[in-house]
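Model the whole thing, not chain by chain.
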Amino acid sequence: MLRLAWSNLMHRKIRSVLSVLGVAIAVTMLLVLVGLSQGTLNEVSRRMESVDAEILVRDKHFDLGSIAGGKLWEKEIPRIKAIQIDGQPAVRQVIPVFLGRIKLGGLSQNVFGIAPENFSVFAGSRKLLAGRVFTDVPQPDVENITNEPLELILDDRLSRATGLKVGDNMSYADQAAMIAGVVETGVAGRVFAPINRLRGVNGVAAQTAHMFFVKVRPGLTTDQMQILCERIEMATQRQASLVAQYGQVLAENFRNLTIFVTTVSIIALVICFLFILVTMYTIVLERGREIAILQSLGAPRAMILRQTLQESLLICSVGAIVGMMLAEAVRRMIEHWQPLMTVEMRAEWLLMAGFIGIMGGVAGALYPGWMALRHDPVEILSYE
Amino acid sequence: MNKKEEFRIQNSEARRDIILRAEKLCKTFRNGALETQVLFDLDLQIERGEFVAIMGPSGCGKSTLMHILGLMLSPTAGRVVLDGQNAGQLSDSRRARLRREKIGFVFQRFNLLGTVNAYQNLAIAERVRGNKLDGQITTALEAVDMVDRARHKPGQLSIGQQQRIAIARAICHRPALLLADEPTGNLDSGNTRKILDLFTRIHNEYGLTIVMITHSPTVARAANRIIHMADGRITDAPAESAEHV
């Protein structure tokens, strides 16, 4: 019977190919959309979690996407350092980060302004592939040294995407800038700059920061770190969260994006389902005679229904596989033309897309299958 | 009918080996308020191994009778007993099962599956019947002398060849009863002769019970017994309006 389903599909090749493409495009759309949105969030999240610190402090109104909103002040650092857990100082180091913005590689990038001596906290095990760590100026001298170019460190991915190498000159906010070093991909920021120079170039007050990374006393458990977060929040009226849970923070900040992606995915699925329904309905209408012949041979109802389902499942299975291949092709194209964008293709998403495609096929074939069962074989065989 | 009478009939049928019995068959088609009665209290008995032609003019109810005998249509009144089983008491699925196990159909328009080849037409029919695919398909193709056309699709065969494939499909599972509805209605005289010879041969060689519907006296003469029909009833004499080949 599978051969009959296959022969029927081969008999109308163009329609079958179009049906397969319809399913494939829906699956591709689903995978690329989810892969792009989740891939970007996960990539940013993984980079932030690579920082050798345990707690992230930021203002409640600070928006990670636009880096707008409330700022922190370095004068808050002593209050954080004074917090104790079990009668001992809980905080080893507080690292302020000032964020700037620069457009590189066709995308707006966050520039992580940090003190040179803290670069190792952000680099972790990743090596400086070329150049050196930038130098900074002591805070009082910022406004006096404006003719020196702002030194930047790029990550390798951005360096390759933009073609910028160590020693290359560029501009940042109408100020001269140069590439001082290139670090392995995977560090928190794609661009690093000396914090005091970055504040100066952006014309903001000294001591201003957007985030504090807190390194805690060795040996603190996760529960103790949660308690520490609560105490930091009480002491500073800021928001403190574990760096390891940055993914959740990011997901909360980009909840609208998740809603958008889910909505578009559901619409894609509904279109896919309707497409299969219409296709199978047309097939059943066209196959009235064939179904009547099977009925005249004594085919049970389940077999007639199975026949319709088999054709639908063949279309949807091939469509799902083609969709996965198309999604992989689109992923490669995006990463070729937009090397800074990340499209993730997880095995579970592929399985889910395949499952959804096949379930759509089953659901889309049920009504036409039921219609097929209602055919009067005598009428069709007598008068068609 | 009381049990005693039923027993008497079954006993009598066992002695005479009746394979198909129709009793007081009536069929009325309803289309809204319009009612058209096609069959009127029709009684019929076919013995195992008979080759019977049911002959009558167009519109006399032959095809309706065949669809009822083939369990594809339910009578409005009366009953059909096939190989000892009262079809009227069976569910749709049991009737479909009885049809696929006991009956082979040959249609005027062949009704082959157009997207698969001749062999696959037989193979799919056997799958529907739940039979394993062994040598019986080749045997059936040999019986209709179509082995060399087994890989051809219906569209690549002549109409005579298509009908032979349809016959092979109908006899492949050695049914208890072969029903043929105007099997030569679409054929020229040469192919008609070949198909009738084929029916005669498979009837003689396999002892198959054949019930053939036709409006043609020439075709009907191929059978061992001719039952005449007119206006939805069995008649003793040929209807005057019967057409000729």
